[in-house]
Amino acid sequence: MKKISSYAVVGLILSLTLQGCQTTQSNLKQDPKKSAEVRTQIAAEYIRSGDLDAAKRSLDEALQKDDRDATANMMMGVLLQQEGSSSNLEKADRYFKRAISLNSTDAQIRNNYGRYLYQLGRYNEAEKQLQIAGSTLGYDQRAMALENLGQTYLRLGNTTAAEQAFMSALRADQSSPVALVELAEIMYQRQQYNTASDFYEGYVRIVGSKNQSAQALWVGIRIARANGDNMSMQILVNQLRALYPDSQEYQRYLKLQYSTEAVWK
């Protein structure tokens, strides 16, 4: 299944810091809520570093201190989702739902839950959560939520809504590579090649020509072909072959390289 955006689950964790760790142990004992908050912050750092077992221990302690902490419940959902086994994915759903019941206005919880639902192929449910996150003004990861929403619409076959979501993501963050490459793809499929080129070139300016994803290289190859730019096309093909020889995109190129079909899908 195509991953939602280019970032891992960790990329959607709250921008938590360890500032709370300056709190003394005695204060933590006197304030269970603060203790839960600090342990949740520590767990976030463990997840970022890939130490899921330590993160689980910290979150267990946090929830023992305050099982009504919405962020701790959300983080447990993120942790179980990242571990990825079927049993833990099932458990994650309960933690996300509890987090929302405890704080229904938290856009980060909605965004993370939407991403989780997308991963499981529950696109209609994901759409609802991501719409809420994407419409929450002031949310510091709103552009990411809108990218996720756009990719969910693509899975639902609603290209018009996807385009609107990606354009909204660009308004929230003009340097969104996800939105740019997805819009390039949408415009290419509509045979609006000049507009597709503009979005693709914007993507390349942001990430650099040598740091393109397989998806972006495939978009660039097809745009160059449509524009009759054989030299650029061959450069991008060489790049795709060198960097992503086992990718679906390169396998698709191999199947289509001798095709005279007007639009390569």
Alpha-carbon Rg, integer = 21 Å
Main beta sheet: strand number and arrangement? none
Number of helices: 14
Percent of residues in beta strands: under 5%
The CA-CA distance between the termini, in Å, is 18 Å
Write down how many β-strands occur, each being a DSSP E stretch of 2 or more residues.
0
- Category from helices, strands and their pairing: mainly alpha
Describe this structure in words.
The protein has 265 residues and is mainly alpha-helical. The longest helix has 18 residues, at 32-49. 70% of the residues lie in helices and 0% in strands. It contains 14 helices and no strands.
Compose a concise summary of this entry.
The protein has helices spanning 25-30, 32-49, 52-65, 70-83, 86-102, 107-119, 123-134, 142-155, 159-172, 177-189, 193-207, 214-226, 230-243, 248-256. It has 265 residues and is mostly helical.
Labels describing this entry:
single chain, 265 residues, mainly alpha, 14 helices
List the helices and strands and how they pair.
Layout: H1 25-30, H2 32-49, H3 52-65, H4 70-83, H5 86-102, H6 107-119, H7 123-134, H8 142-155, H9 159-172, H10 177-189, H11 193-207, H12 214-226, H13 230-243, H14 248-256
Keywords: TPR repeat
InterPro entries: Pilus_4_PilW, TPR-like_helical_dom_sf, TPR_rpt
Organism: Acinetobacter pollinis
